[in-house]
Amino acid sequence: MTSDVRLRPVEERDLPIFFEQQLDTDAIYMAAFTHKDPADRNAFDAHWTRIRADPRVTIRTILVEGRVVGHVATFVDEQFGKQEVTYWIGKEFWGQGIATKALSRFLTEFTKRPIYGRAARDNIGSVRVMEKCGFRVTGLDRGFANARGKDIEEVILELGGGKERAP
Ligand SMILES: CC(C)(COP(=O)(O)OP(=O)(O)OC[C@H]1O[C@@H](n2cnc3c(N)ncnc32)[C@H](O)[C@@H]1OP(=O)(O)O)[C@@H](O)C(=O)NCCC(=O)NCCS
User: Fold this and answer.
1) Distance from the alpha carbon of residue 16 to the mean position of ligand 1, in angstroms
2) Above 60 in pLDDT, residue 155?
3) Distance, CA 153 to ligand 1 centroid (Å)?
4) pLDDT (tens digit, 9 = 90+) per residue, 89-127?
């Protein structure tokens, strides 16, 4: 377990690292609800330019011992109209508790509630990360997953909406 997990605003030099991290095929399969073509650098750049300029989006770069290991963000989902979280950790850094620490820190900085998360039902790691940060599963949905080329089941999680277990 690593303890030196820090967050800071995204800098231009982080973007090539994020691009490489989101090209990993295992990660793409896991996340499932990805962009149509993660290898399209122009689409990636356009997406990041748009989200970095959007006042409804808060994104933080995750650093461990000064290295860029991923990112964590919140945005208002266009389809569902709700505040959601998302995160991505470079594969070489998985399994060290980084996503849990990063999301937990992010949630102390970004305090708007309720806040939601969605994950492919078989993305056990992502569901667990949210549960460890206090989210509770409140429902299931189905949606088209670009990475799977079909509709799959999604888990919906919620924090601060009154449906989670009392501490
Ligand atoms: C999902 C993801 C963020 C997990 O990051 P991580 O830093 O490895 O997660 P943590 O180390 O904080 O693990 C948190 C918990 O999840 C569990 N976990 C993590 N990955 C897992 C996996 N692939 N299968 C089963 N459990 C897993 C850990 O064991 C831990 O639970 P525990 O404390 O009860 O043992 C990372 O794999 C990732 O970025 N994947 C690709 C992108 C993605 O899926 N993003 C989320 C989209 S909804």
Assistant:
1) 22
2) yes
3) 18
4) 999 999 999 999 999 999 999 999 999 999 999 999 999
Atom of ligand 1 nearest to the CA of 117: 48
Q: Which residues of 42-60 are buried (b: 16+ CB within 10 A; e: fewer)?
A: eebeeebeeeeeeeeebbb
From edge to edge, which strands make up the β-sheet containing 5-9?
Answer: 5-9, 58-64, 67-76, 83-89, 115-120, 150-159, 136-145
Q: Closest ligand 1 atom, CA of 70?
A: 39
Which amino acid would we find at residue 7?
L
For the chain, what are the domain ranges? 5-159
Ligand 1 atom nearest the C-alpha of 94 is: 8
- The count of other CB atoms within 10 Å of the CB of residue 140 is 10
The CATH number of domain 5-159 is 3.40.50.2000: no
Residues 61 and 15: their CA atoms lie apart, in Å, by 10
Has this prediction a pTM greater than 0.85? yes
Binding site membership of 97 for ligand 1 (Cβ less than 6 Å): yes
- Indicate if ligand 1 lies below 6 Å from the C-beta of 68: no
